[in-house]
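User: Please predict the structure of the protein below. I'd like the answer in structure-token form so I can feed it into my own downstream comparison script.

Assistant: Understood. Taking the following sequence of 257 residues as input:
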Amino acid sequence: MYTGVMIASQHRIKSKVKGNFVTPHILVIVSGTNIPSNCETLADAFMEGIQERTEQEIHCTKICLRDLSIQHFSLENYHTACISHDDFCRVQELMQKSHGIIFATPIWNFSVPAHLKNLIDRIGAFGLDEETHSKGQLKGMPVTFIYTGGASVIAWKVLLHLTTMHLSEAMKYFGATVIGRHFEAKCMEEKGKFGLVVDKRSESLENMRRRGKQFSHIVRRFAKTGRLPRLLQLRHDAFTWAYRIGNRIMYPVSQQQ
């Protein structure tokens, strides 16, 4: 029983087909540990934006990593079929049924909470092919990241986006398409004191709702056709092509080392 998985609202998990329409599913993964937390508050606003598009049904599921029990990554877990019998099996099931994923996380000491990095490592078990563990299996699935931190926007642009890039690069490696990354700066009540502040930032919350609305449009198209809007699809195809070429070049070189 996976009691750690929190359902944001009463939604069915299995995709439902109505004519030619497949009900899109979006998974929201929150790695903040505080209750309440800034990243979760922004994620909730993002989900509100998703639900604004009411002309077609869309389902969201939110999980909070603080409530889950997921074993640390090891080679024993490196199987397409989850055999660990922990909460990750449920997370894997949700991800494989989703048409889009949102990661909401704080930035601590230039990186993200360890349980999120562990989750990313565990995703490689099914996010990569079982034979070579080098080919992404997420088929272009749209993904977006929401970051919060105490630093300024300048610190994000100069340094923090580099120290957290491993998350987005890993998801691209698994075959996903990263739609965007948002950093919410100066999430502090005052100097040296962290706490919930974004609930009072109406512009930030509205920005999240707007982004959520845009994301839902992309996910709906992906759920229906298996493809992204033209420019995003070209970007995904270009990355996939470049990675395969680079892999073909580097593999023989590595064998000679």
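That's the full token string. The first strand starts at residue 17 and ends at 18.
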